Prior knowledge:
The structure is a homotrimer. Chain A is α+β, with helices and mostly antiparallel strands. Chain A has one domain: Hotdog Thioesterase (Thiol Ester Dehydrase, Chain A, Roll). Chain A is built from nine helices and 14 strands. In chain A, the strands form two sheets. In chain A, strands 1, 2, 3, 4, 5, 6, 7, 8, 9, 10, 11 and 14 form a twelve-stranded antiparallel β-sheet that branches. In chain A, strand 12 and strand 13 form a beta hairpin. The longest helix of chain A has 16 residues. The radius of gyration of chain A is 20 Å and the shape is globular. Chains A and B meet through helix 1, helix 3, helix 5, strand 8 and helix 6 of A and strand 2, helix 1, helix 6 and helix 7 of B.
Amino acid sequence: MNKTSTGNFFEDFRVGQEIAHATPRTVGAGDQSLYTGLTGSRFALHSSLPFAQSLGYAGAPIDDVLAFHIVFGKSVPDISLNAVANLGYAECRFLAPVYPGDTLSARSTVIGLRENSNRESGIVYVRTVGANQAGVEVLSFARWVMVRKRDRAAPAPAPVVPKLAEAVGTPAAPVGISCAAYDRAAAGGAAGWTDYAVGEKIDHVDGITVEEAEHMTATRLYQNTARIHFNAFAQKSDRFGRRLIYGGHVISLARALSFNGLANAFCVAAINGGRHANPCFAGDTVFAWSEVLDKRELSGRADLGALRLRLVATKDKPCADFPLRAGEGYDPAVLLDLDYWALMPR
Amino acid sequence: MNKTSTGNFFEDFRVGQEIAHATPRTVGAGDQSLYTGLTGSRFALHSSLPFAQSLGYAGAPIDDVLAFHIVFGKSVPDISLNAVANLGYAECRFLAPVYPGDTLSARSTVIGLRENSNRESGIVYVRTVGANQAGVEVLSFARWVMVRKRDRAAPAPAPVVPKLAEAVGTPAAPVGISCAAYDRAAAGGAAGWTDYAVGEKIDHVDGITVEEAEHMTATRLYQNTARIHFNAFAQKSDRFGRRLIYGGHVISLARALSFNGLANAFCVAAINGGRHANPCFAGDTVFAWSEVLDKRELSGRADLGALRLRLVATKDKPCADFPLRAGEGYDPAVLLDLDYWALMPR
Amino acid sequence: MNKTSTGNFFEDFRVGQEIAHATPRTVGAGDQSLYTGLTGSRFALHSSLPFAQSLGYAGAPIDDVLAFHIVFGKSVPDISLNAVANLGYAECRFLAPVYPGDTLSARSTVIGLRENSNRESGIVYVRTVGANQAGVEVLSFARWVMVRKRDRAAPAPAPVVPKLAEAVGTPAAPVGISCAAYDRAAAGGAAGWTDYAVGEKIDHVDGITVEEAEHMTATRLYQNTARIHFNAFAQKSDRFGRRLIYGGHVISLARALSFNGLANAFCVAAINGGRHANPCFAGDTVFAWSEVLDKRELSGRADLGALRLRLVATKDKPCADFPLRAGEGYDPAVLLDLDYWALMPR
């Protein structure tokens, strides 16, 4: 009996396969504290119990992105331990708030497989769902990763490439939540949904330098075991020669930086897609800017609306001129190009 | 509408102006854990619930200095984002314990303004008050900072320089708190109030080296956004060439080090004044010593008394000979010269 | 009155002496979060409240090794501040789970003393007990350390060397705990007690690089004050020239790494002995392997059994070939050789 996991390889997956991921995780007040300490998150909803209650939340939910990382982290040992690359996300929906005391567990379904022409690896598409102790789904997302084959000669499965929406539709209005009593002064920003225009770009101004101890502590907090983040000894013989920062940590930093300009984007309702354009390493200083891609009213809701936002993170490059492209590809300073829906009081 | 804050400049302030700071913060058990992990705090009052209850506290309050940092941090985006220098503190009073579960918010009043003769900047004096969710003031302090002008030509306000007390008067005896059952063995020190003499100096012996990841995590935990602590890229072109450690982190380390010699100084009642004599950088090893400046009985209280203490922190210099002055100014190894009142069982 | 502790020296100890250690410590949810973030612990018992309850625990207990570190840390200021070396542990028994909200305190008894022939130092043997707020003993262990003499000429006590068991006997079945409903898929491992064979060796595969900020934060979290871990300035003139990582942090990392291969070893019941074979420094990448030394049924229990395990940690050396010895001594890459009893569902 093989007791040590070296992760699944491409030929270990079958379309339709259901995988229950290990290690349910009870989220505690300490997790949010540590997340605040490691990322600088300042959104009032997660920082203040009375603020959260004033919107109708039962408690102060943890940061949406923190909940994402915990669910994502559970999927790593089964899905992406042998990943060559994380290729993309889609259809990420945040379905219910996660409160301290909730226990998150995760399961994934394999929704697509396609061997690469070099027969060395293939693309695995999964849909991962995180649920709380009551079985309520709190978030779900699709992602696809390039996974090595154990044996080049293993037969290729029939290719199945799932249709994934280019963007999640207008998010639903959250049940039981109202911005009628939303206190913008407490939240730290005067601008509401009506003040943002499609096409508007916002430089988030601030920059934050990442240390090895920080990204590793964050990634371990999510019980994410991807070795490229932790093992400097093995990374010496990797193409980068050093530890790579978990792309999700960059998302967290960019979201925290976006407070300065989007302080009232209190809720991440969905992530339409995301791309880690370049790797991030310890010592890099992360900057961010946003673009308003779309805005939508929510049916029957005069108190809040949805903004579709592009969130771009860069390294060692302030964002006053909104760096993104260079020729056909990304500017080499761009780390992240994330497309998401946020909710904001009108 | 300008959505991104670049902070207030000198000409944005008016005497009498009231500023409600953003981001109320519910303090959790995780904050004290992280504070302990980052500073090494060992005072029994904050470490042990039964110990705190034995003195009459409703719970184990968080470290006084941690509460100070959280309130201070809220004031940074409005008051000192464009500060050239933090010049001083005065009249800091700790008015009520802060317990896990309390939500702190902060507001400031501008109590003085004086343009500098070079017209490039001016001094802003504020009084900042932190209150809990019930509106009870938990601490207040005055501070003054040198703030840049946006426009050199902006007219100077009439100078107003507030009278600030050189020292807070003898602290009041804390209501409902008694040291009758104070357990010195549990607290870790045999010496009580009667054992200390005015003029006595105490070398706190131990030293603690600071890492970038630590001071940044601490400062983010307080949601303090001053960019000099976080942005190595921008700091490369600053006069120091690197990130500067939040002066408050040095206070926390010095207070934690002072446990060895002042283990029973269980409560910081007031800070009379403080000066950050030299900057602290990652890699520096912080040492500390104290001097007893004064001691006072508290009216009607046989169980405890107040000590007025000077707390000096140095870098890379052990304190057996109590370094402080060099010629007219501070010894270049001195980081901090803090003057505070502590309470101690008699 | 000497207010500052420089720790006890060899001649300050007497056989039979009882020492109540300072600073009771209320364990909070934040401590487990930080422990998870700093070590990568993934054992489901400590991660998930429902999982813990399914085994009959009243809550999700903190990691056994975290409880050990907190109790050990309390003993440091009294026992090992002037230690030249920590020589060994024995007879460590985990007697009751520690839950968030519990307050741990520690006391030690001097059970042996033997001056070294060079008269510069001597060996101090102590038994340390940690208890919770109800006075229930949660763990106890013996350890022996080489402690400097203050004065070489001080008379030697009559040598007393306690008999310590080479191994703790088969652990008792934990009262009220049952693995009848143990969910191996949730815990992350298929193998149970019956699947392990005496003599079997397991490479835990993964490696984790340690940073200064991490080991210092962990060690401060335990309120362990041993200066060699914190004071880079003083360490420059030490034989290693730099900060030494607390050996307990290596135990934590090795235990966390052992999840990959021993995911169902949910409970550390006892530590028979441990040796820190070589020092660990920041920048080292820690790997681990285990060997099954023994296995025992527990009387009357069909649901679980005990495994006696050797847990070996190395630095910068993957463990596929189970490095341990080199000639007469340890392989210079070996950091830790720990012998413990774990409980596992059958």
